[in-house]
Known about the structure:
By secondary structure, the protein is α+β, with helices and mostly antiparallel strands. It is built from 12 helices and 11 strands.
Amino acid sequence: MTEIPALSGALEGGRGTGIAGAISAAVLSGGALVHASWHGEIPAPRARPLRRDDLFDVASLTKVLATATLAAMLVEEGALELDAPAARWLPGFEREGKERVTVRHLLAHASGLAWWRPYHELAAADPVAGLAFLPTGRRPPPGALREAFARGREIVREAVLAERLEAEPGTRAVYGDPAYLALGWIVEAAGREPIARLAERRLVEPLGLASTFFLDGLDPPGSAERAVGRSFAPTRRSAPRGGEVVQGAVDDDNAWAVGGAAGHAGLFSTATDVAAIGQAWLEAVNGRGSVVPVAAAREFARPDATPASGRALGWDTPSRGATSLGTRLGRGRKGAIGHLGFTGTSLWIDLDREVVVALLTNHCHPDGPDKPRMLEFRRRFHDVVAEALGIG
């Protein structure tokens, strides 16, 4: 496996300062894998060094790797329309003034919806859905929670449908999860399959990815089959789940309430797989064949027109000042697209230099993230990548 010593040194340095107990990175340049490494350990059930196939909860990278990617495919096929009302695919969403919210608004975080709600509290208070939130010793095994997750999905879906707008659609860009919960259901309606199956059939299998999947509580046999023999980096201590340290289940509590497969979170992957999906987007945006359609990819990568927005459709772009991409990458005419994940993950794609950088950590383990500290680590690492590749 190819490894650049300066990059491994930067990652080991981050681990040494306690930025995360498990860190992995993959870098592609011109379509070739120039670096892949993994650092730290899996602490439970028995401590051992991290391996290349150990899985990370990529958190909000799910928004681009799965939800936006599937949406781009469906737009290209005419099954989804960017400027049509979202309620066309999500009946009931038009309530409370949301009839003007389009699919584009949701993708661009410009719908006017709140940035976050604790929907999991509604599920935890329900006698059926609440079974999934019992402490570990009292909670039924995963295979027996299907009914609880189905009820949780109903509760969370109804709560999203009942949301009121905080601003007029298209007038502000505020990053958040409720819009992508809605988008997940819209993608399922347009694609006529659960998002976990759509991602597997339309993305994972065509790209030959061995380590990317949802653990869908509505499909216990399938999830058990995917997880068998696999190891997962632990994430947060979840108070809503009885204080357990989450490992081998989705970190996000709202995603857990609906079964673990949602439009905003729930995907598990490795750095090399995440980089491969990033490369598929790079190929498409730059006009070459890919599982991601070229025309839709270019539309999705274009800066959104919402006032003061630094976003594209699904993707983020380098912001002014302190950006996690650092000071060297993404400075060309085409710029860059990327995204971050709460657990300590990121994916950035330099469209001019044709560099893809996937950085996966479990920085949030066990007590949540230190965002300023993680931002600085990401910036330093991306600058080391650029220096190693001769990018000034």
